[in-house]
Write a structure and sequence with these properties.
171 residues; alpha+beta; single chain; eight-stranded mixed sheet; 11 strands; 3 helices
Length: 171
Amino acid sequence: MQSLLVLLSLSTSSLLVQAAPFNVSHAADQGLGGSSWWLTSCGSTLFAGSWIDIMEWEMCEAWCNDITVGSSGDAFQFAHIVDSDEMECVRTWMMKEIVTPNPCHYWLGGSRDEYGQYQWTSGHPMTYTDFVENPGNDLFIHLTPPNGYSWNTKNNQNDRNNGCLCRLDRD
């Protein structure tokens, strides 16, 4: 399994991340980057994340949609995870490459609906989960280093140190 690292920088303010649309096709091909964003591949899927800039869960979908690839302008989406192989690829990347110097917490694109069930914002069926034993009962799915990036739940009011995890399927 080979991962591709690309770190990309965008401007931010202390209260609001303002994602400027950017195209990662040349960066992905050439391994270019900056200091606050990363990109890796897991099979035919690209994952992108922020490890410096933090934002509320609701801001992640727009942030992800501002990342595009290639001349077609295919946009990333707020990440869903389809199976254990994909989760292990993302987890391995985060544990080996992103832990130092500042391990980041990430929002996944899953939230609890009015019936108490978790669902993906992408509309993909939630057929795989990786929740810790006691994940909590908050609104949003969350990845954190102390859990080995297994899933727990958090909310925006009590957890303000999160980046976003995005995906782009390339098949």
